[in-house]
Amino acid sequence: MARPREFDQTEVAQAIRRQFVATGFASTSISHLTMATGLGKGSLYGAFGDKEQMFRRTFNAYCEEVFDDILEQLDGPDETALARLSAYADIIVADSSAEKNPHGCFLAKTTAELAAIDPEIAQRALDTFRALDEQIAESIVQAQRAGDIDATADPRSLALLFLAAMRGIESMGKSGMTTEELQSIATAAIGALTGASGPRHNLSDRVWKRRRL
Amino acid sequence: MARPREFDQTEVAQAIRRQFVATGFASTSISHLTMATGLGKGSLYGAFGDKEQMFRRTFNAYCEEVFDDILEQLDGPDETALARLSAYADIIVADSSAEKNPHGCFLAKTTAELAAIDPEIAQRALDTFRALDEQIAESIVQAQRAGDIDATADPRSLALLFLAAMRGIESMGKSGMTTEELQSIATAAIGALTGASGPRHNLSDRVWKRRRL
DNA sequence: CCGTTTATGGACCCAGCGGTCCATAAAAAC
DNA sequence: GTTTTTATGGACCGCTGGGTCCATAAACGG
Predict the structure, then answer these.
(1) Strand C contact at CB of residue A15, distance < 7 A
(2) Same-domain check for residues B170 and B76
(3) For residue A181, how many C-alpha atoms fall within 13 Å in the half-sphere facing its CB?
(4) pTM of the predicted model, to two decimals?
(5) What pLDDT, in 10s, does the model give residues B143-160?
(6) DSSP secondary structure letter of residue A89
(7) Is residue B174 part of a domain?
(8) For the purposes of burial, counting CB atoms within 10 Å of the CB of A80, is it exposed (0-12), middle (13-18) or buried (19 or more)?
(9) Kind and range of the H or E element at B53?
């Protein structure tokens, strides 16, 4: 061992992430990254490799976080499964308003920019979507057991619809759609799960965990 | 008048559009455009202005087309309103598969890249989303009159949910989600409109008009 | 205290960027 | 045929891009 790093790896990684979230891959220059991190080129390259490696690392970490977040948010007993889905939708709404989060979801942004020309990125995005879908489907099965969702409905189909609605909220939120409109989508999505009969259990159970885009 | 242009404006505009759809704004270089169009820099600048003007013109034309398409697709009598919505969803599915259309919807791509830093782009995107929503809502009202959708449901809320599901299909299609999965979303979205009772009229009425992303 | 090893950040490289300019070509006006 | 006007496309410019290199700094082992 010799001279140690003068910076905190995770702090710098967060600064890099903030920059990529704001300006994507192509529009982020190395000088953006040196400014955002306060490091020189040499340090940045020494610690994280080139721009592409930095980006892939950031994107993978983001996808993992997105998944960890839904895992934590949807975890719980059958009786509050629907309430947790509703709370998750509320979180998506809150995080998708352009006012609060002008740059939108990094997963969506990166898929839009790179999926067509980078199979690795596309695959990671697809894996993440499928993982989200799976978690949602599990919660729907729980809610079916609890009597909040029609037990004869196909949970996989409902889960995909719910996920699509969430991605739609994100997609349109970036353009400046109001929180009221986005919230209406979230409410309607939950309504689509419960059907005309409505839920058996209360949706307003306190099941919020934490927020993340 | 003197020497006339040697190229067809609309053909060249289409070539420009193909390039922007493929590589977005930042990642499209002028040399990309000269290659795509076969024109020299001078001609391109003379006829269309600089890169930013070319892009804005292309984006605006695209938004208009998206709206014209839904207008044409959803036009018709009450009895087939739901079938037309279903056909529209099928078109979105077909156009959103990465296999057929790797670059995705230009509206989504541009919103993801630029809405956060360009209010004019954001506003145009928002206007387009709202216009789509309005047309969908109108068709839903028609379907309610025809007895295919519960007349007590709020058409605005249902329309936003439907639109969000469509944008979700587009968003996830780019990552390579299968046509079957995307189609399942479309079917579930129509199901969410009709509710548990199902539609009164047949969904398979021949109401397809033309295709567009 | 000195040699070794690694971190540091700015100098440097050159390829490609967006944009301008201009000599030339070509059609219209007369 | 001559003049006028516009289109054309490549030469050219200043600048910034990503990436490398290296003199220097700083901590450790002995």
Answers:
(1) no
(2) yes
(3) 25
(4) 0.94
(5) 999 999 999 999 999 999
(6) H
(7) yes
(8) buried
(9) helix B51-74
